[in-house]
Amino acid sequence: MIYRSPRPPVEIPATPLAEFVLARASARGGRAALVDSISGRTITYEQLPGLVDRAAAGLARLGMRKGDVCAILSPNTPEYPIAILALARLGAVATTASPLYTRTDLARHLTDSRARILITSTRLTPTWTGIVSDAGVERVITFENGSEDAMAFSELLAEPGTPPPVAIDPADLVALPYSSGTTGLPKGVMLSHRNLIANILQTDASNHFLHDRDTTIAFLPFFHIYGLTVIALLGLWSGATIVVMPKFELDAYLDLIERYRATLLHVVPPVVVALAKHPSVERRDFSSIRKLFSGAAPLSASTIEQCTRRINCVLQQGYGLTETSPATHVTPEDPAANKYGSIGQPVSNTECRIVDPATGEDVAPGVDGEIWIRGPQVMRSYFNCPEATRATIDDDRWLHTGDIGHVDADGDFYVVDRLKELIKYKGLQVPPAELEAVLLTHPAIADAAVVPLKDDDCGEIPRAFVVLKAPATADELMDYVAQRVAPYKKIRRLEFIDAIPKSPSGKILRRLLRDVAIPSG
User: Fold this and answer.
1) What is the largest CA-CA distance in the chain?
2) Nearest to 179, CA basis, from 431, 479, 494, 476
3) What is the pLDDT of residues 23-41, one digit of tens each?
4) End-to-end CA, the chain
5) How far apart are CA 358 and CA 403, in angstroms?
6) Rounded Cα–Cα distance for residues 339 and 488 (Å)
7) Under DSSP, is residue 82 helix (H, G, I), strand (E, B) or coil?
8) Where are the alpha helices (DSSP H) in 11-102?
9) Beta bridge partners of 370
10) What ranges do the domains of the chain cover?
11) Percent of the chain with pLDDT over 90
12) pLDDT at 264
């Protein structure tokens, strides 16, 4: 059975992304578009199109052309969305990379994406120095001051210029974020101009921003599809003021909410938990806030109740994937219509099925199965990964999410488990296979498996089970992994086991390990 969105369909224009996002910018005049949370430096809407054109013209002078890939590795900065839109203006492709990457992570990403230019931060110099040329990168640009090894982004903006005219088809690639999909190492997710424009309009149709009236604090990273589409691109298209934080710190975040009278807060579950429980939240002025919007991982009913009661506003949740640009489901704004535990109903122009993963047959309402999604926000494919694409998108363009859930009699959807093996740590993807591969390089380890462990503050944490062939301590092994992976991928709990449970074909039976009780003491 196909479940369709109850929301009215949206018309998706055949417009290039930059032109679409900036269409009403000049008319908004001196309204603040992007604000640096540290310095207070402000870019207004009337300034924004000119800065995008200058950046695009500057990149074109460096040889950037339609179809070329530019990697962006940086904490949030007001220039980040300008770079994204400048690349879109040229018909080029932005591949966004995590500032938490290790050198190995970055080298893999740059090589796989075939990036010609890297736009980055001087704060991340130890990460990219010495690896960019081997990865095929021809030039480095930094958002801060330039150096011998990199030119400053401000140099792109120094000269007036008009980018060359480019014929852009709606199906052309514009963004290449990386996702682990249902399993394995990260893969490039090919998102087109139409994908992102569709999802901007689909999310807008769920009453997201109040046009030209909202202010939000953007600490969620722009390299993540949630931060890129829902906050940066949708926010600028809607005329929001986006106060840009390079890093989340609770007290600084609370200060910004009060100083800028934020009205819409984009959050993730760990921040909702902090707003609900942390003592720093007491005696703060939240009277400007009309709504919290949470994504990236599910929230418990008790946490939602505690937070909304304390902040005195509504909380809306969204569900989606990098592969869907990201939003596919949104809960109602009205608390009376909001069912705790539900991810809501499909956004406009979106169809869903609940399918038995063993038989491929649709299941009845109320019965758990894999959630399948079809709509204009679904990615073109994984970059240069045809087998992974075929395993994720079938011939009828249904995307198999790897999430297990059901739909109730009212058409509200629920996610209860995951077929896919990803761990969601604070909304960030941690592939178990990657951690297992690192563990298996330790000379004391004979076998290993990594599974998610539920955690109130982080959503899930990586929990490892290890079979030893020589003496080693849990702390020693966790430190070994921590030295070789990004900080958010660290193993947070490690236990020893006699044998890793596996199927006859050798596949790790993670379900059995997820159910292993935590030892007392």
Assistant:
1) 69
2) 431
3) 999 999 999 999 999 999 9
4) 49
5) 14
6) 31
7) helix
8) 17-21, 48-61, 79-89
9) 355, 404
10) 47-167, 424-514
11) 78
12) 98
Burial of 423 (0-12, 13-18, 19+ CB in 10 A): buried
Q: Which fold has domain 47-167?
A: Rossmann fold (3.40.50)
Three-class SS state of 104 = helix
CATH architecture of 424-514: 2-Layer Sandwich (3.30)
Other C-beta atoms closer than 10 Å to the C-beta of 28 total 17
Regions of the chain where pLDDT drops below 70: 181-184, 296-298, 503-507, 520-521
Asked if residue 10 lies in contact with residue 201, where contact means CB atoms within 8 angstroms, the answer is: yes
Query: Taking a C-beta distance cutoff of 8 angstroms, is the pair 51, 82 a contact?
Result: yes
DSSP code for 384: T
Q: Whole-model pTM? A: 0.87
Structure token pair of residue 21 = 């996002």
Could you report the per-residue pLDDT of 68-86, keeping only the tens digit for each? 999 999 999 999 999 999 9
Name, in order, each residue with C-beta under 8 angstroms of 211's C-beta and a sequence gap of 6 or more. Answer: 238, 239
pLDDT of residue 357: 87
What is the DSSP secondary-structure string of 38-58? Answer: TT--EEETTTHHHHHHHHHHH
At 340 the pLDDT is: 78
CB 344 within 8 A of CB 329: yes
User: Distance of alpha carbon 266 from its chain centroid, rounded?
Assistant: 12
Instruction: Evaluate whether 120 touches 144 at the Cβ level (below 8 Å).
Output: no
Query: What is the Cα–Cα distance from 22 to 476, expressed in whole angstroms?
Result: 52
Distance CA 388, CA 338 (A): 35
Measured in degrees and rounded to the nearest 5, phi and psi for residue 269 equal -50, -45
